[in-house]
Amino acid sequence: MIPRPPKGTDDILPPASDRWRVLLRAFDDLAERFGYGLVITPMFEATELFSRGVGAETEVVEKQMYTFEDKGGRSVTLRPEATASVVRAYLQGGSSAVFKVAYAGPMFRYEQPQAGRRRQFHQVGVEYIGEPSPDADVEVIEIGFRLLEAVGITDAVVLLNSIGDPADRAAYRELLAAFLTERAGELTADARRRIAANPLRVLDSKADAAVLADAPTPAGHLSPAAAGHIAAVRAGLDAMAIPHQEEPRLVRGLDYYNRTVFEYQSASYQAAQASLGGGGRYDPLAGMLGGPEVPGVGLAMGVDRIVLAMPAGDEEAVLDVFVVAADAGRRTIALELVRSLRAEGLRVDLDLGDKSVKAQFRAADRRRAATAAVVGEEWESGRVTMKDLRSGAESSVDAREVAKWIRRR
Ligand code: HAM
After folding, report:
1. What digits encode the pLDDT tens for the residues 208-242?
2. Regions of the chain where pLDDT drops below 70
3. Distance 278 CA to ligand 1 centre (A)
4. How many other CB atoms are found less than 10 A from the CB of residue 72?
């Protein structure tokens, strides 16, 4: 028996991976245009990075980490997210300059797998470190929105909230804990257990929604500075006509956030795990890792989920041309034509086996080529037969003009 991939992991193969390529390219392009450099951090880290950075009481750290001892006896963890690593890397660099970076790669969380919730999943994200201005929050939120737009998800909404500064949060936490304790009899056992350790986590519990409807919200308990900050973020999003709505119960599951937190949703992706991406401001994180106070804001988008939400395209061609050799004797010429067209920047392929013309055309269809170039007898007079594989129309084209012909159609 051929071994199967581990539960909650996927092989992402063509043609399904065509969408991944579209998305990853769109992200790379956006990140570059917004001035984010590329960052690559290790896929495993000292476990301590996450227990300190993400928070020991969080669901991610408590239940979802792939943690093991390496052969040297160190506790290491497959990264469940990348923000803690990026901030660590920034602090180790020792500079205090503004730092804008983008990443793409797999993350690992031991979750109950379902569509859009995987144990190995892919994120693309940006981190804007060293900038306290609400305009940085607005820029980061815009990037996620533009990414969704670029892949055809045009109805995305940003759910937005402020959880305040650490002092606001501590006061709110107490208030919430008091409220939950008072209503403990109506809560699930899970929620009751969380009251003491991390009452904010209860806010995520769908099973306790009825009680939570009456709970105090973080936004009602903000310092003037934090209130001014979120108002400026809202105004910035309004100015760009990015749809956003207040979500008073949005707190997010990671401990490093303060002030702005946000998630993206779309009607095209309605699952139990509905968020296509999320992020927020994390001014406390550098301090949690033992560094100086450094502000930061960032986001991560869930590629597996976005790909599920992308509209079905009109089966776009993935090759501009498939070169067909009319007989085995013309294989070398066909190969030369392939090379020259590739050098011109076109997406070109051919069949390297000794197949019939019919079989080569079948391969061209299977490979989703837009056109076929047939190298046959007319090559002797410097011509190639070009066939539009959608309409079936054929034309005889000067062999030196094939690239031009393809680009003109
Ligand atoms: P997060 O909300 O944990 O945030 O993850 C961001 C996105 O990753 C989610 O909105 C979701 O689309 C996707 N995601 C999370 N878990 C899974 C899973 N098991 N399967 C599939 N997709 C998943 C963070 O990770 C923060 N580091 C974001 C951030 C960056 N905050 C500041 N900078």
Report:
1. 888 888 899 888 889 999 999 999 999 999 999 99
2. 272-273, 314-315
3. 6
4. 6
Q: Give the C-alpha separation, 254 to 274, whole Å.
A: 17
The pLDDT tens digits for 82-113 are 999 999 999 999 988 999 999 999 999 999 99
Q: Tell the residue nearest (CA) to atom 9 of ligand 1.
A: 277
Gap between the Cα atoms of 273 and 151, Å rounded: 20
Task: Find the residues whose C-beta lies inside 6 A of ligand 1.
Answer: 81, 83, 109, 111, 116-118, 121, 123, 125, 127, 275-280, 282, 298-300, 302, 304-305
Residues 8-24: pLDDT tens digits?
Answer: 999 999 989 999 999 99
The Å distance, Cα 277 to ligand 1 centre, comes to: 6
Q: Answer yes or no: are the C-beta atoms of 162 and 229 closer than 8 Å.
A: yes
Cα of 197 from ligand 1 centre, angstroms? 23
Question: Given the CA of residue 111, which atom of ligand 1 is nearest to it?
Answer: 19
Helix (H, G, I), strand (E, B) or coil at 310: coil
Q: Helices 166-182 and 189-197 meet at what angle, rounded to 10?
A: 140
CA distance 98 to 132: 10
Residue 187 structure tokens: 């809560």
Quick check: 306 and 299 in contact, CB under 8 A? no
Compute the half-sphere exposure of residue 409: CA atoms within 13 Å on the CB side of its CA.
20
Q: Which of 273, 281, 310, when mutated, tests ligand 1's pocket best, judged by the most ligand atoms within 8 Å of its CB?
A: 273
Q: Which of 232, 224, 202, 233 is closest to 215 using CA atoms? A: 202
- Run of H or E residues at 61: helix 59-63
- Which of 45, 58, 140, 159 lies closest to 102, judged by CA? 140
CB 111, CB 273: distance < 8 Å: no
Q: Which residues face 388 on adjacent strands? A: 371
Encoding tokens for residue 82?
A: 């990348």
pTM score, whole prediction: 0.94
Rg (CA), the chain: 27
Q: What is the DSSP letter of 205?
A: -
